[in-house]
Amino acid sequence: MYSRLSSLSIRAQLFLIVFIMALPAAGIIIYSGIKLRNDAVAEARTQTQILADRIASKQRNLVAATRQLMVSLAHLPEIRNRNAARVQPLLEDILKLNPIYSNIFIAGLDGKVWAAAIPAVPSLPVSDRRYFRNALASGGLSSGEYIINRATLKHGFNLGYPLRNDDGETVGVLSVVFVLDVYRTLAKNQKLREGTGDLLL
User: Fold this and answer.
1) Predicted TM-score (pTM) above 0.70
2) Longest dimension (CA), the chain
3) Considering 2, 29, 40, 126, which has the largest number of Cβ atoms within 10 A of its Cβ?
């Protein structure tokens, strides 16, 4: 072994000595880098879980409050009697008081909207929307999916609730559109690390 080393040039021997001396330092640097990366991933996972829990909690509260609103509205005589002239201003007032909603409207069984806080122009049927079909099929509160609201042209998420007459027959669907920006506010308040991005699915 010694004869092999002595046969190397002085330059090669120096490179070998420097390499041997640098090996532990390189190992420490690599280990520290891996540990820092793992710590950052663990922290990101924790922060993401906290944010997801807050969003889920906010969503549960929003849905519970919206359900109470929809059940209350469904029992109003003006809505049961389909009095659009009296219902329209009521929906407008409710919308002004609740910035978490971008629209509130009522459609008949055919999907034609007969009262809305913000009417769509032109008026388009909503019978193709998931929340409408599911509310009629399930007979209860139903969620929709991400949509561009036809009246406000804003992105949103709908809930639908079936309206019944005095005989218990379904006669239409009451719908509320959530403003999705409320979740953006939650993400901003989380104070995530600089350069962090988020995607809500």
Assistant:
1) yes
2) 106
3) 126
